[in-house]
Amino acid sequence: MKGVFPIDKLEALRTPLYYYDTRVLRDTLACIRTEAGRYENFVVHYAVKANANPKVLTIIRESGLGADCVSGGEIQAAIKAGFPAGRVVFAGVGKADWEINLGLDYDIACFNVESIPELEVINQLAAAKGKVARVAFRINPDVGAHTHANITTGLAENKFGIAMDDMERVIALARQMEHVRFIGLHFHIGSQILDMGDFVALCNRINELQDKLEAHRIRIEYVNVGGGLGIDYQHPNRQPVPDFKAYFKTYADHLKLRSYQTLHFELGRAVVGQCGSLIARVLYVKQGTKKQFAILDAGMTDLIRPALYQAYHKIENITSDAPVQTYDVVGPVCESSDVFGKAVDLNAVSRGDLIAIRSAGAYGEIMASQYNCRELPQGYLSDELV
Ligand SMILES: *Cc1c(COP(=O)(O)O)cnc(C)c1O
Fold first, then answer.
1. pLDDT-derived band of residue 155, with 50, 70 and 90 as boundaries?
2. Domain that holds residue 314
3. Is the pTM of this model over 0.90?
């Protein structure tokens, strides 16, 4: 089964381009609202780093999600798209002074702090402005996620967060500072997680930490479990909306939330992954000695996930229904890793056919570069192409 695309409209546009199916995006957002809405204290933020296309951001903001940002630029993008500052949270291991000041000026909801030196700088910068910054500590829970090594973040060996053993010391430190207010804990164990057991492991770890805090009479109102829910890259048509029901239920069943606490989520990939496709044209079909290549006008500069993470994306010839042949699908960039897929079965391709590389809405357009002096791909909503 192939996806449905407005071929005539796409034919008229310069490729490569990103195509966002707004119906899939809206269905996804509606499902999040319904499934998270079953639980009174659940608050969902969108991780802006997955896709900051202004048109996509606006639709997400309209659905009522908050924004999780990891840079000053993302805070600016979120504010510009209309996210209220009171629903913006700011994470990241290396926040620069200007980025912290930006967050202070907007009075964002929370800084998710990843080290003691960062806490000290936030306290100083807030003092200079006569403000008090709300802070949560990102704790490294030493929980492994069964996903690609480059996208696990919650192991003791990763650069992210504060070690569990240091938690109480850091909290004590924060409580002595006048210009920060410690409100809670933040976690994020990795990305493209499909095994709910990984989230259960995180819940169990948080339960332990909560008991420890309670024993010390430390009360927190904010618990943030990050994002990480994966999508079905193999079957974008069969499963366009991720299983948010099971995801939120896992937290409801396993995390012992206190009645005065809110539980925050920061979903990126699961929100935007399936609505986007990279649309490319076939430039050449080249017969090699052992295989044939479909050479596209899109490359790793437009979608780097296959080169960076050996990620799989479903590839479809959306122009033709000719009998299937097997191709290595490659880009024009001067790097051997500029390959979208090897031994891919496609309806036989000819020069000029349009190719859709599916499930590219997350970490696609936003990671595009201009290597080889290439132009950045444009992004279009399906709403614009009717
Ligand atoms: C990347 C990131 C997210 C979103 O991750 P997804 O896997 O896209 O859901 C959430 N929180 C933090 C802190 C992140 O760095």
1. low
2. 274-385
3. yes
Residue whose pair of structure tokens reads 């995006």 in the numeric block: 25
Regarding whether 378 and 259 lie in a shared domain, the answer is: no
179-201, pLDDT tens digit by residue?
A: 999 999 999 999 999 999 999 99
**Gap between the Cα atoms of 98 and 72, Å rounded:** 8
216 CA to centre of ligand 1 in angstroms: 30
Judge whether residue 223 has pLDDT over 70. Answer: yes
Distance 151 CA to ligand 1 centre (A): 10
| In a shared domain, residues 212 and 303 | no
d(CA 281, ligand 1 centre) in Å: 31
| Ligand 1 atom with the shortest distance to the CA of 192 | 7
Contact predicate 147/227, CB 8 Å: no
Q: How far apart are CA 356 and CA 344, in angstroms?
A: 13
Residue 155's closest CA among 87, 196, 282, 163?
163
CA distances (Å), origin 11, targets 6, 22, 54, 136, 330: 9, 19, 24, 49, 20
Coil, strand or helix: which one is 77? Answer: helix
DSSP assignment, residue 383?
G
